[in-house]
Design brief:
Largest sheet of chain A: 7 strands, mixed
Binding site for Zn(2+) (chains A, B): 190, 253, 270
CATH architecture of the largest domain in chain A: Up-down Bundle
CATH superfamily of the largest domain in chain A: Dehydroquinate synthase-like - alpha domain
InterPro entries (chains A, B): Dehydroquinate_synthase, DHQ_synth_AroB, DHQ_synth_fam, DHQS/DOIS_N, DHQS_C
CATH topology of the largest domain in chain A: Dehydroquinate synthase-like, alpha domain
Largest interface: A-B, 40 and 40 residues
Number of domains of chain A: 2
Family (chains A, B): Belongs to the sugar phosphate cyclases superfamily. Dehydroquinate synthase family.
Oligomer: homodimer
Number of helices of chain A: 13
CATH class of the largest domain in chain A: Mainly Alpha
Distance between the termini of chain A: 53 Å
GO molecular function (chains A, B): 3-dehydroquinate synthase activity
Enzyme class (chains A, B): lyase
């Protein structure tokens, strides 16, 4: 029971929508991990075809005492399925099983499962409770925390969604043991992100511990997840609906979203696109005179060491990026605003000319 | 300018989501009616093919000074189109026109347009502002107020939606002049509803003024809309998300929804189904010993005088009603709870046996 004692909790402070993030080994299969969840009603474990055989039974068993019945819904795996059609399979299952307003949805999977299950919970009968049980590093450190839920539209990523907070996040570090290497790296992209935007010391810690993280050292992962969640919870607690500060969490994402949309969702993992996007956003920060060139090198190095792409795809032109960025949610009145680093651990928002953005993309693309 | 002086305002008090309902003649085409709406951004007037030729240009003109551009989206007319496919035409229009987070949606139409536009506003980029400009009596007294938005699912009405408040409701009484007679009656069903559930004196007023209302007397309509909105605003202000009190607004709706779903959406108007449903719910209140038989007669009479159906359709059996009621949102753990009248002007929730419910339906159905 050594793992149990190592469990820690981070709170997302949002008044009447306050909730805990629990982080530790072996949490997923322990009934007491879910004691913050409303009792009664039907439980629906929503997962995907890759995660289901690994963990669905454990979660179903752990929550069964709290609920009158436990159902399962399996979604196809991958960002390309994060659309209305897949979302509707959740609604179909809920309605054909007569699920009422006391139903609790458990999102067991990565960011795609979490985003879709959260959005389904936000909309079903105008809102039922849900729980995040993230099974990827990326979901544990980013997407499962903060209540952003959405599906994609053919014309843009995450365009249809809701701000809707879970009752609880259960981040079980043991699930990271089975994570494919590519997904571990994708998650590290979001971990790395928190350094330059909010905590210079954390960036240095990541650089010192990157080999341990890649080797899945449990203590290193525990610290990375905890510190990431603390920073995200702090930001979300101040700006739940992204009217200002929260936008800094999108460092590298404006470039990254353009890569994802331009290649077709699913070609690159979200974290891979963000990794490359952070190199470009760091370059932009340097070109705007905010940061020295050495900062770009430093970001390039840590992202590359994390086994993430540091060059944009050869097939995407600068013009195509700009076109895609203009339909991104972050654009306002057609003006694209970028998250830039103003000093190490401090981010801000800046516009940039099309010429400069194209030059930055060119400098960091495979040609 | 006599109409302008007759304008009145009811406030929906919801803290930071507080908003006014403006009621009066000629409001729709006056720019000052919209002064509570955020400036800038693109305006999108969402309407349907029946309403567009009557009022879309007036609204577009009235709001044009507040916005950089005014777009229009026309939806097909009718409850049978209140689904994902139609909703998606709004998203398509918003995205192909590069609409950002400052976009304001104007819902110009009846309950279907309001419900779908409100839900589109709730979901687009996780939430953009919207305004209700209801063009039916039913929408003015009920659906445009209180922030319930939704679309239908083949397995149930309003199953997918959100609680999402508008910035403002503009109820122009002049639009009621062009309303088809059947729709006027449908609206009166919801007006009548407010009497037995919340205000005995208002029920007596409706009985005294029903001929004037049917003749579209402007002063009578103004009072009916104002008092209805006051009662609805009071209820919603206390229980926005329907955890208790708000359910009383569904008097007659559990029976009514079953009629609508059983016949296929669009066969009967919502207000028609609610009219008949209130006769049944009044009978149930009497059968449960809460109200005298004379109350059922009284409700039967006023509903019939309003030119609403007082008998359920011949083709729907009691068993079919019960089956449909069990998938309705109001059911919990498979138990159906009915809004009943406990004393005139006071409603409550009660379960009832299947046998009793079937008997009530039988007594008020065409066979």
């Amino acid at each position: 029971m050594e793992e149990a004692s190592a469990t820690c909790e981070v709170r997302v402070q949002l008044g009447d929508r306050d909730y805990p993030i629990r982080i530790g080994s072996g949490l997923l299969s322990r009934p007491e991990s879910y004691d913050a969840v409303p009792r009664g009603g039907v439980a629906v474990v929503v997962t995907n075809t890759s995660v289901a055989p690994l963990y669905a039974s454990s979660v179903a068993r752990a929550v069964s005492a709290r609920h009158v019945r436990v159902l399962r819904v399996e979604l196809p795996d991958g960002e390309e399925h994060k659309n209305w059609l897949t979302l509707n399979t959740i609604f179909d299952a809920l309605l054909t099983n007569g699920c009422d307003r006391k139903t609790v949805l458990y999102a067991l999977g990565g960011g795609v499962v979490g985003d879709m299950t959260g959005f389904a919970a936000a909309c079903y009968m105008r809102g039922v409770p849900f729980v995040q049980v993230p099974t990827t590093l990326l979901a544990q450190v980013d997407s499962s925390v903060g209540g952003k839920t959405a599906i994609n539209h053919p014309l843009g990523k995450n365009m249809i969604g809701a701000f809707y907070q879970p009752q609880l996040v259960v981040a079980d570090l043991d699930v990271l043991d089975t994570l494919p290497e590519r997904e571990l790296s994708a998650g590290l992209a979001e971990v790395i992100k928190y350094g330059p935007i909010a905590d210079a010391a954390f960036l240095a810690w990541i650089e010192d511990n990157l080999d341990a993280l890649l080797a899945r050292d449990k203590a290193a992962l525990a610290h990375a997840v905890k510190r990431s969640c603390e920073i995200k919870a702090w930001v979300v607690g101040q700006d739940e609906r992204e009217s200002g500060l929260r936008a800094i969490l999108n460092f590298g994402h404006t470039f990254g979203h353009a890569i994802e949309a331009g290649l077709g969702y699913g070609a690159w993992l979200h974290g891979e696109a963000v990794g490359c996007g952070m190199v470009m956003a760091s370059e932009l920060s340097a070109q705007l005179g905010l940061m020295p060139a050495s900062f770009v090198d430093r970001m390039h190095r840590v992202i590359e060491r994390a086994k993430l792409p540091v060059q944009g795809p050869a097939t995407l032109s600068g013009d195509r990026y700009l076109e895609l960025m203009r339909v991104d949610k972050k654009a306002e009145d057609g003006e694209i605003r970028f998250v830039v680093i103003e000093s190490l651990g401090q981010a801000g928002m800046r516009p940039a000319s099309d010429e400069l953005v194209a030059r930055v993309i060119e400098a960091h693309s495979a040609r």
